[in-house]
Amino acid sequence: MRVVVRTVSELCITAGTLIVLFVVYVLFWTGVRADGAMNHQIDVLHDQWAKRTAHPTATAAPGASAAPEEPAPYTHGKPFAIMYIPRLGFTWNKPVLEGTAVSVLKKGLGHYEGTAQLGQRGNFSVAGHRRTYGDPFKDFPRLRPGDAVVLTDGTTWFTYRIDKGPYKTVPTDVEVINPVPRKSGYTRAGRYLTLTTCDPEWGHSHRLIVWAHLDSTQPVDTGKPAALRR
Amino acid sequence: MYGVTLVPWCDGRDGMYGWIWRHLPGNVWVRALISLVLALAVVYVLFQYVFPWAEPLLPFNDVTVDNQ
Q1: How much is the pLDDT for A53?
Q2: Which domain holds residue B21?
Q3: Which of A44, A126, A163, A206 has the most CB within a 10 Å radius?
Q4: CA distance to B25, B35, B36, B37, B44, per residue, from B31 (Å)
């Protein structure tokens, strides 16, 4: 009898310690790791862009300046842009990586493969964690129509304006990232942006969506767009 | 001095942690130090290997609309 009681109590203490450690891991440690990983991705991008401006080779094709060329395809798991959303905080900026695999979303926001590229016609769609891994989209429900979502790929600033959202839907509703998203209110093809995250905050039963349209673009040489100035 | 017994932990007098404690060498301070190192090693393995495996089984990773 004593053996049973002692064994059960030791197992309870062990399990309790494990659970506490796991909660610390999920709430705290994933954030620490993700912040480091996101900062690293942003550093990688700045390095790339610094090299590209130092050696402007392939981009300067003679006579091709009139038509904006199709950007090179993104590489899975690699960062290609930085996103700024002033509503989520003046210093809020996150790298955007290609792909929405679990391993990619640990390092930043994930661009849905197969959706439009940044600034191109179609629907540039991005997913991000609401909670854990740095909580990038923790304040997602505070987004409102008219808010700016600014992205840069190192050569151009893209300012999108939110038109609708946050819109709550179910995980199987893949039409929200269509080129002309269903329920978004858009009727014609255009240059759109979709952000998705999970809802409720700690759950996975629903998704929160916002839609935006491309409002303006400007070269990085001309400085930050108005939405990022204070 | 506590003798090292050959009794398995489940039949002993003081449970599995007591069994481990009795099998550590040295005096109280050395044992405490080894225990601390062992505990840190367990935490490291958990954080580095076990929890990263277990965490995707929870719902916080489902942020996309297409992967089921």
Answers
A1: 73
A2: 15-58
A3: A126
A4: 6, 6, 9, 10, 20
C-beta separation of B21 from B40 below 8 A:
no
Domain extents in chain A: 33-56+74-228
pTM of the predicted protein model: 0.81
* Beta-carbon separation of A29 and B61 below 8 A: no
Contact predicate B13/B21, CB 8 Å = no
Q: Report the residue from A18, A29, A197 with minimal CB separation from B63.
A: A197
Name residue, tokens 């044992």.
B31
- Interface predicted TM-score of the whole assembly (ipTM), two decimals: 0.78
Tell me if A211 sits within 8 A of A186, measured CB to CB.
yes
Residue contact B55–A26, C-beta within 8 A = yes
Question: pLDDT tens-digit profile of B17-59?
Answer: 888 888 888 889 999 999 999 999 999 999 999 998 888 887 7
* B11 close contact with A: CB closer than 8 A: yes
Let me know if residue B19 belongs to a domain. yes
